[in-house]
Amino acid sequence: MVSQGKVYLRGLYGFRFLAAFSVFYAHLEQAKGWAGIPNWMFHMGTRVAADGVTCFFVLSGFLITYLLLCEEGETLIIHLPSFYLRRMLRIWPLYYSWVLLVFFVFPFIPFMKFPVLGTVLDGYFLHRFLLFLFLSPQIAISLYSHPPFGGPLWSVGVEEYFYLIWPLLLKNIPRPRLLLGLVGFVLVMPVVRYFILKFSIQWVGSIFSLCRFDCMAIGALFAWIRMYKNEWLQCLFQRRWIPWAVWFWALVHFVVGVRYGIFTDTVYSLVFSLLIVIVAFHPFPLFSLESAFLTFMGKISYGFYVFHWAVNVCVIQFFLRFVHVQNNFIFNLLLFVICFGMTAALSAVSFFGFERKFLSSAR
Question: Residue 275 in contact with residue 246, Cβ under 8 Å?
Fold first, then answer.
């Protein structure tokens, strides 16, 4: 079971990269707007970044739960020390290396100063640094502000909270009771978040808007369904029009940005979960995400997600100072290609030269 689960992980590398790419693209457009560079015709707004992070959360909930259930099915136990060690070696080396750069290197490089991003060199430097140090960047960002180039780490902090708590619950709480609680949590959380955002102080509302554990819970529910009630999914996907409908919904909503009020994240999480199941277990030839390029980019997507803000800013700064292109389309195209290429190159160097050394020691 475990090996089977790991085989299927490859089919989701492309899915992971598409989520990272949506965040990269939205932030590139946002940075260009701050620098006074006209956006080009594919501008879709920062909401695409939020939807991409929601996709990350759903994928995390699904993968972690599925692999833990596979382990339980094969060994009859969930071995928590091994799980936590693997997560630490996957997340912490790059996370803490980047935190040190954000707080102790980037603020002293004049070239990396950028409109709106501000600085960490203020009266709250120590507060923010300690919160980042203890894997709580989402709290630091809610209480104070985004440290330049450290913003993407907030979702890593949210996922670390999930990784800490969810395996403990999965191992120690009777499964029927846990599933009932999970469903109740998914249904109640959007309403709770709405009232907190409406009536609480700003920083509390900000934390609740960032900590979308219900999105991860939906991914976990679909992992359980795939593991123990797969006949439901088999029956659903026997109708060939359903994968078409799910993909069409996802593409249209990503481009148009349809919202569902307080249940927007819930609806998107449900559809992302269906897409994960389709990609991993019911491949749909027209939208296959298993190409060599997507697989490669999926493997380095953690670094791609972490590095993209800093690379975008550096490239934009360079263009503003040294490159003068009159044609707006060509200018935007060059920015996109160079930002994407440099982010991918830096991510590949990080993965194969740094991150993979820790991953190999986890096996």
Answer: yes
**Can you tell me the distance from the alpha carbon of 195 to that of 191, in angstroms, rounded to the nearest whole number?**
6
Single-letter amino acid, residue 222 = F
Written as one letter, the residue type at 323 is V
First to last CA, the chain: 17
309 and 341 Cβ atoms separated by less than 8 Å: no
Q: How far apart are CA 49 and CA 119, in angstroms?
A: 22
Residue recorded with tokens 């990609």: 279
Q: Which residues contact 330 (CB under 8 A, 6 or more apart)?
A: none
Percent of the residues in the chain that have a pLDDT greater than 90, as a whole number: 58
- Residue (of 87, 68, 54) closest to 214 by Cα position: 54
Q: Give the per-residue pLDDT at 111.
A: 84
DSSP structural state of residue 43: -
Pure H helices in the chain: 2-9, 13-34, 47-75, 80-104, 125-133, 137-143, 153-172, 175-199, 202-210, 213-228, 230-237, 241-256, 264-281, 292-299, 301-322, 328-350, 356-362
Give the tokens for residue 250.
């996802």
Phi (first) and psi of residue 319, to 5 degrees: -65, -45
CA 279, 282, 287, 292 torsion: positive or negative? Answer: positive
Whole-number pLDDT of residue 1? 36
Residues near 355 by Cβ (< 8 Å), separated by ≥ 6? 90, 93, 94, 302, 303
Q: CB count, 10 Å around CB of 262?
A: 16
Place of tokens 């701050």: 34
Contact 22, 52 (CB under 8 A): yes
pLDDT tens sequence across 75-124:
889 999 999 999 999 999 999 999 999 999 998 888 888 877 777 777 78
Question: How far apart are the C-alpha atoms of 181 and 159, rounded to whole Å?
Answer: 19
Burial class (CB in 10 A: 0-12, 13-18, 19+), 128: buried
CA angle, 57 as apex, 345 and 90 as ends, to 5°? 50
